Amino acid sequence: MISAENEYYLRVYLLLFEGSSYITKEIIRRELPKYGGDLDALLKLKKESKLRHEFHKKQMEKLFPNGGYDKTNINTWDMQMLVGVILIIFQPTLSTREKEKLKEIKDTRNTLAHGSAVELNRKKYDEKKHQIQVAIEELASGFNDAVKTKCRKFISTYIFDPLDVSSAIKRLQELRSTDDKFQELLDLTAKSQNVIQKGISGVESNIRKDLKDLDERIKKVDEKTLQGLNELIKEVKGKVLSLFKGSGRGIYNLQIRFDGVTLFTRET
Known about the structure:
Blueprint: H1 4-31, H2 39-54, H3 57-63, H4 79-89, H5 96-113, H6 122-140, H7 145-160, H8 165-175, H9 180-245, E1 253-258, E2 261-267
Antiparallel strand pairs: 1-2
């Protein structure tokens, strides 16, 4: 089982990626029509002056697939790219509060991504989850109810609900192509699962051994009990038959029962 500190990290990182990615994509879709609607053209305008200084080679390849001949797909962008592009291209039409919250998301992502361990203590967890939650809620406040509901669902799933580790791992596998940190989280959870499986196998082995020992002990007890019971029946039969033979009485139907079971029947 993953530790509490690992779970805190997993919750915060998934909330950051799922919730923040969702709302930043909605911001791009909202702002894009204000600038003509052609995202690829807007990216090319800022390629040399801004974007090349902001993003590394792999990120630039996602912004300009096939050297810019293919259209970009925001669903392949990582959190740094989503926030960075918004702040570079759409900054003039963003509110001051939106820019502040986007920068908070960017800083939180960088802090988590560049940390030496995939874990958070309780204090840091409470701090980060509150920061991300407030940022997502404020960024969603200007959208319709459907967007707000979707954001609340992310917050509920990764902060308040019990964490389904299997589902979280599956989601990490789906998302690992968009952020290198997800592979590290997957390695951690896989290692934890191996530890759990070894523990379960060890327990199962011990249980099987204990059951085998118990079965052998029961057999020995049963053999001794049956042997003693047979000797008792034989002794009782002999005494009863002797009693009737010496009595000179007529024929009797003799039954010896033990615990509701007929052990011996004899007419004499």
